[in-house]
Amino acid sequence: MGCLVCGETEFTDLFATKDHLVSGESFFVRRCTACSFTFTADPPAEEEIGRYYLSEEYISHSDKKQTLTERLYHLARRYMLGRKHRMVTAVTHRESGTLLDIGSGTGYFASFMNKKGWEVTGIELNAQARNDSVTRFGISVLPPAEIKAIPDRSADCITFWHVLEHLHDPVMWMREVKRILKDDGKCIIALPNPDSADARWFGDRWAALDVPRHLWHFTPATLSRFAGNQGFKSGRIRALPLDIFYISAMSYRNIGCRLPLFRGILTGTLLTIASILRKNSASSLIYELSKQAARDL
Ligand SMILES: [Zn+2]
Fold first, then answer.
1. CA 48 / ligand 1 centre spacing (Å)
2. Model-level pTM?
3. Which domains occur in the chain, in start order?
4. What does the buried/exposed string (b/e) look like for 35-69 if buried means 16 or more CB atoms within 10 Å of the residue's CB?
């Protein structure tokens, strides 16, 4: 199979990295020699990958607030919801509208946006997460196949918060995004950044590689090229400031270091200071895409 981004067929293996969360298996991260796009080599097929998500932590994001980590997690989530909301309004120049959240999980973001006046639909693979969103927040959440039933040009904004890197067929998803988005609508994609300061620091031990659940490791350059191929114009790139602490702490924990949270916060702080002048060095980046007008194509 050719490269997802450029179609070329020559690759080199960069390094092997381990699935610390569930299986303990190792996978190679492979790079296209033509365009430098990196991806997880030989991942489990879509029908078989379900078992690699069977972790307490992945379903996670429970509402326990006992440990310091859990408390910090809840504080961070509250902060991030506000930040994502501000980002949607800034990118779309709208205070309300229709929003489709792909990979809506347990529905926190969808519900938050709904309370802020947006009409929100979620798409979620996990049936339990879909049920939770409906019973808890009253949000309408559809299974992935039902995206086909969403009308053309009906959304002002479509969001993928750390989701695109999990999808086996991102081309199909971007085709649906293009169909569903209004002509002046915006697509927001948050992704881990393999060019980040923490990715360089941790190398093959960077927790956000998260193999084999993360299939694609987009950088600003490869995401922009991929989006262009799918008929999108790339706009501003923004940072998700807290992810470096979380990812650094996870990376230390995976390696078996003591006091991973403390070390993660320390490393995150030092790396943030050290790379303050480097563009797009944040652990996670948020990409803003618009539909290319027919005349641009
Ligand atoms: Zn390529």
1. 26
2. 0.91
3. 66-296 (3.40.50.150)
4. bebbbbbebbeeeeeeebeeeeeeeeeeeeeeeee
